[in-house]
Design goal:
With about 210 residues, this protein is mainly alpha-helical. It has one domain (about 5-205). Helix content is about 80%, strand content about 0%. It contains 9 helices and no strands. Belongs to the UPF0056 (MarC) family.
Length: about 210
């Protein structure tokens, strides 16, 4: 088992999903809830994220095959999307790539926000799903898939603990601290996106790129 691979995958999830950067959004979406209700929302949201990413790990390649999409083409598309989200994060924003204005309006009227919009599309959004599909397709042995699945579960537990402490963390870090972390995660995510795009071009044009 290549633990370096799983650590890289885990850190990629942390950078792309950026649960710390989502803390103010979580606090805002659950402001009308009591403490037990907020904890339940955090629990449901992270279970949903884990399920979505696990399905993506095992079914992502089959979905690409069904639509006759090459891995190289998907790398370029997914890497571009990751880079766009990263640029938004570097400006200290979540960006409309993850949530558009209509979804913001709908979410304010929802009693339960755990699955939509919190789990999908804010956490397990297109950037995270694209990254997971590419990673799973490149390392598609059963051992690696099991290791990546374990990394997803660990991420879900970590994210749940962060959300449970959301109000405390937000008070300690403040708006400025959250923005600094979001920008740092955005820089890491932009690097990941560029690497994915480069790998895609190398796969599509092997004779041009040595």
């Amino acid at each position: 088992m290549d633990f370096t691979l799983y650590i890289k995958f885990f850190l990629g999830l942390v950078a792309i999903i950026n649960p710390v950067g989502l803390l103010p959004v979580f606090v805002s979406l659950t402001s009308h809830q009591t403490e037990p209700e907020r904890n339940q929302t955090a629990k449901v949201a992270n279970i949903a994220v884990v399920v979505i990413l696990l399905v993506t790990i095992f079914a992502g390649q089959h979905i690409l095959n069904m639509f006759s999409i090459s891995l190289s083409a998907f790398r370029i598309a997914g890497g571009t999307l990751i880079a766009i989200i990263a640029m938004s994060m570097l400006q200290g924003k979540l960006g409309e790539v993850k949530r558009n204005k209509e979804e913001v309006g709908e979410s304010s009227a929802m009693e339960s926000v755990a699955v939509v919009p919190l789990a999908l599309p804010l956490m397990a959004g297109p950037g995270a799903i694209s990254s997971v599909i590419v990673f799973a397709a490149e390392n598609n042995t059963w051992v690696n898939l099991a290791g990546m699945s374990a990394a997803v579960v660990v991420f879900g537990l970590l994210s749940f603990l962060l959300f449970r402490m959301a109000s405390v963390i937000y008070k300690i870090l403040g708006k400025t601290g959250i923005n600094v972390i979001t920008r740092l995660m955005g820089l890491i995510m932009l690097s990941i996106g560029i690497e994915v795009i480069a790998a895609g071009f190398k796969g599509m044009f092997p004779s041009l790129i040595g």
